[in-house]
């Protein structure tokens, strides 16, 4: 059975109000609000009423709308996409991921983690820096997939934080997207070799990382990795013959 999914399209204010009410009635597990003009008041109102919401996409929404997630607590949300939100920086991510200030303990609140079960975070095309990697390792204990594509301020120092204990990403991180990264060099590959579960690394169009370095990275791994599509490292697929 496919999960309940809802995609919102831009409409006038009156239609939006009615649309949000209908969304609540449907209780979707997946909600796409990409490029929508939903306000910083409407988003928290909506999210706190969606008790089954597991995946939320906010691509290119207004930064104030994205930051309004700081008023929410969700022990259910597993996938959050904040890609290409203009002016989204370290401060914005800290506000969203920082210590939980939700007093509704009946929802299983945790003082440290507002989105404690988040497994996928996409920050492509945002203005975050290495500082945000500290927030990610500090406040997302179950993160498995991270996208930092088109993030021009992220450097090797930020990637080092993902591979340094006591960060849970050392053991949990499975997928990392560093494509189109200007400042990422082959030093990051040395750091990432310590990530015990990493089986997909995308460095396409990252000019300071060579294909040869990625081939060596894959060869040294004990997870049967190989380089596919020039600078994409993946786990080798086993083909079974019948």
TrEMBL record:
Phylogenetic lineage: Eukaryota, Metazoa, Ecdysozoa, Arthropoda, Hexapoda
Protein name: F-box/LRR-repeat protein 15-like leucin rich repeat domain-containing protein
Protein's organism: Henosepilachna vigintioctopunctata
PANTHER family (alphabetical): PARTNER OF PAIRED, ISOFORM B-RELATED
Domain of life where this protein originates: Eukaryota
InterPro entries: FBXL15_LRR (IPR057207), Leu-rich_rpt_Cys-con_subtyp (IPR006553), LRR_dom_sf (IPR032675)
Pfam families per record: DUF7885
GO CC annotations, alphabetized: SCF ubiquitin ligase complex
Any Gene Ontology biological process: SCF-dependent proteasomal ubiquitin-dependent protein catabolic process
Domain F-box/LRR-repeat protein 15-like leucin rich repeat, chain residue ranges per copy: 116-220
Cross-referenced Gene3D superfamilies: Ribonuclease Inhibitor
């Amino acid at each position: 059975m496919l999960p309940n999914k809802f995609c919102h399209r831009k409409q006038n204010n009156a239609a939006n109000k009615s649309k949000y009410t209908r969304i609540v009635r449907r209780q979707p597990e997946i909600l796409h609000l990409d490029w929508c003009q939903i306000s910083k008041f409407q988003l928290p109102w909506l999210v706190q009423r969606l008790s089954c919401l597991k995946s939320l996409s906010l691509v290119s929404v207004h930064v104030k709308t994205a930051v309004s997630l700081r008023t929410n607590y969700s022990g259910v949300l597993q996938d959050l996409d904040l890609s290409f939100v203009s002016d989204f920086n370290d401060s914005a991510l800290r506000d969203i991921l920082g210590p939980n200030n939700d007093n509704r303990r009946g929802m299983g609140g945790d003082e440290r983690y507002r989105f404690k079960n988040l497994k996928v975070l996409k920050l492509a095309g945002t203005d975050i820096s290495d500082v945000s990697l500290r927030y990610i390792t500090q406040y997302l204990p179950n993160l498995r997939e991270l996208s930092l594509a088109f993030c021009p301020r992220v450097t090797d120092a930020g990637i080092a934080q993902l591979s340094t204990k006591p960060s849970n990403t050392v053991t949990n991180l499975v997928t990392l997207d560093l494509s189109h990264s200007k400042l990422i060099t082959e030093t990051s590959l040395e750091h990432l070799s310590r990530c015990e579960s990493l089986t997909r690394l995308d460095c396409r169009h990252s000019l300071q990382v060579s294909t040869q370095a990625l081939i060596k990275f894959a060869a040294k791994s004990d997870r049967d990795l190989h380089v596919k599509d020039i600078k994409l490292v993946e786990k080798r697929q086993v083909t079974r013959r019948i």
